[in-house]
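Per reviewer request, we include the raw input and output of the structure prediction for the construct analysed in the revised manuscript.
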Amino acid sequence: MAVPNQKPSGSVHLGTVQETLLIPLYGRAVESRKPEPVLRDPAAEAMVAAIDYDFARFDGGPSLVGTVLRTNLFDHWVRAFLAEHPDATVVEIGTGLNTRYERVDNGRAHWFELDLPDVIELRRTFFADTSRRHMLAASVLDDSWTAAPLATGGPYFLAAEAVLAYLPEKDVRRAVDLLAERFPGALLALDTTGPGMVDTQDTHDALSKVEARISWNCPDPRLLETWRPGNHLLASHTFTTLPTEVHDALPAEHREMIARMEELRLPQVEDYSLNLVRLADLAD
């Protein structure tokens, strides 16, 4: 696994929502240092060491582990997709400082990492474009960014991890419609949040430490199928209902934590879903 350029970036200057990217970054770095981690991410460790930010504010809460479990499932889905389509294209929507390329790249796929300009500016202090990997500075709602990945010809896997929930529902619907129009039949991985987390985010162990707030409340991921004829929800999991092959590969510490969560049935856990959708292809 490659470690990014370790350029000290100093204090970060990010927008309110963009600051939330530092939570999963820190989660992966903390996880990577464990004797038996869900995943190894020396790139995340290097970036946390280089960025001047009070990451310790997130210590002690279960959400750091939650971000790692989410990323691990998304990694699983991308690996499965690339095993079937090794020359495909992966688009990371709201990429933040994600390092999925370092963990999952197969040496053949095309990767595009999309985020707002301030995030991409920070990202470029650690990573550089290559012949197969490109950063795109734009909003997901700005359809001009789609031209570059469309030039590869697909098929496409679109990963929107911890990003759409911060948009109002009308913008989420615009984004999903845009993705379906430009990438018909693509797979879209996204997380959805119901009222259990939305109503408690002011006391949430991580979100309460930042100014950003979740806006989109989606109590049932099957609603995504009603937004556009042909959208199909292929999978939907909570942390307590992970796919068997993903759950069983976790370290014992994490399986025990999941068992405790299952017993407690906390609303903020049970209505947070990790989803895989096949976007409508009206040509079918």
